[in-house]
Amino acid sequence: VNNQEWWRGAVIYQVYPRSFFDSNNDGIGDLSGVTKKMSYIASLGVDAIWLSPFFTSPMKDFGYDVSDYCDVDPIFGTLDDFDELIISAHNHGLKVMIDQVLNHSSDQHPWFIESRSSHDNSKADWYVWADAQPDGAAPNNWLSVFGGPAWHWDSRRRQYYLHNFLDSQPDLNFHNPNVVSSLLHTVEFWLKRGVDGFRLDTANYYYHDTELRNNPPKENVVEGSIGVRLDNPYAYQLHLYDKSRPENIAFLQRLRNLLDQYPNTTTVGEVGCDFSLKTMAAYTQGNDKLHMCYSFDLLTHDSSMKHIRNTMETIEAGLGDGWPCWSIGNHDVERVATRWGRNHHSIEKSKIYMVMLLSLRGSVCLYQGEELGLPEANLEFNQLVDPFGINFWPEFKGRDGCRTPIPWKNQPLGGFTESITPWLPLSNEQLPLAVKEQEDNRHSILHAYRDFLHLRRAHPELVHGSIHFLYNDDSTLVYTRSYNQKQLYIALNTSEQDKIIPIDLNLTPLILPEALKSGYIDHNAVVLPPFSSLIAYIS
Ligand code: TEU
Ligand code: CA
């Protein structure tokens, strides 16, 4: 594997800059804060960072509503701060990936301001405008992920515009070639500035059906990913026409052509839809579209090993030469220590899920704070700032609880800021899990992460090996990773019970990090005590 393929099997650490470290004490994390903490990130042993958006924005969706694709929002710093961040990351041996929110802009973007101003301006067709139906109703039944219709009436143009997310996030019209070339131009701006890759926000939403056909209803709706919550009407449609259109493939090829002019760069697309595993395959096969994709399949509430095995086997069967990327947490979903750990033994369970995530086949995104085993922060309704959460409270508490600032020290403001009014409060339950506390405790989950990432690097089977599943029950998973004639056996137990797995293999266990509980071999069986794992060479 050459350097050009650094992303295959890479571990990508997601930084949500608002909540990482506040360098100027205004209560909001910023780019200089990330630079100040670069040696912490490097100390984890990850390969790259992915920065959530830091572009100029009215912050209606905390940066996922961009009003200037080629500048830094003053809250986060300046372009010079960004250049410094890149230099520092590269000096630490870390690649830098940035978020690109191409599907929609802010309604404050000059493109949209011009587009809405008349029917015949030069950007009139840059967004998705449509007439009302004769009775004044919206053009069709499409819905916004964040609640309500996907259409917003504009009283100046006397037309509706499409927004798959907030009404302050109008969808760009990818069917217009000038839109596509302008967006590719902004992507190139960052390539020239030295970034190593992109995380593509909502990579399957770019194109809509130009006939604006109604989405059909969806049968058998089951609780699942963040988009499939039973309190959200969005879950009851099959999204055939508002996203995941076939035209997207040609766009992804153009994007790839651009990236191929900048050696060693990469992409990871976010794919959320009903056919996500199929879409991941379609977007990554053939080495001429995206490098990697991730789905929401491991971001659900289902932490059973059956679900994990099914997800992996489905993607392995359909992926061909495509390459997956997995994450079990991000800035949109309840923190995994709570979602999968619940309140019981959540740190012990999180350690096993870490071993799993870092030994499945694919690249990995780790969300800041996951390495600390942080639980979801408990916020009151009046502390919420996420409009998605405010819309659906109390059935859904929104995304603020996974976005509270990182506790660096066990003290009231967590060493995150000196401002007494951070943009979201520090979570009291998280303070005892602060970085400093865990550095001083050899058995902490932070040490488990560091040591395991080190072990992963030392064993190419874990990074590049093919995967084959041998056994599972609800809380036990056993599989192998094979690479270059060598084969590793991996057994995980996330339950409170001992698990005994008969074997007819000759196993030589690896020494696991001190902070992990390990299983052992007893005669013809692998014994897995509660919350333990075993990794062994098969000879
Ligand atoms: O998220 C897309 C998003 O909202 C999905 O979680 C969606 O629920 C799913 O595709 C439905 O099946 C991205 C960002 O991660 C998020 O923070 C932004 O708010 C959103 O796009 C809009 O830019
Ligand atoms: Ca700040």
Automatic annotation (TrEMBL):
Cited CDD domains: AmyAc_OligoGlu (cd11330)
Top-level division of the source organism's lineage: Bacteria
Residue ranges constituting the Glycosyl hydrolase family 13 catalytic domain according to the UniProt record: 14-403
UniProt-listed InterPro entries: GH, GH13_cat_dom, Glyco_hydro_b, O16G_dom_2
SUPFAM superfamilies referenced in this protein's UniProt entry, alphabetically: (Trans)glycosidases, Glycosyl hydrolase domain
Gene3D superfamilies: Glycosidases, Golgi alpha-mannosidase II, Oligo-1,6-glucosidase, Domain 2
UniProt record similarity statement: Belongs to the glycosyl hydrolase 13 family.
Name of protein: Alpha glucosidase
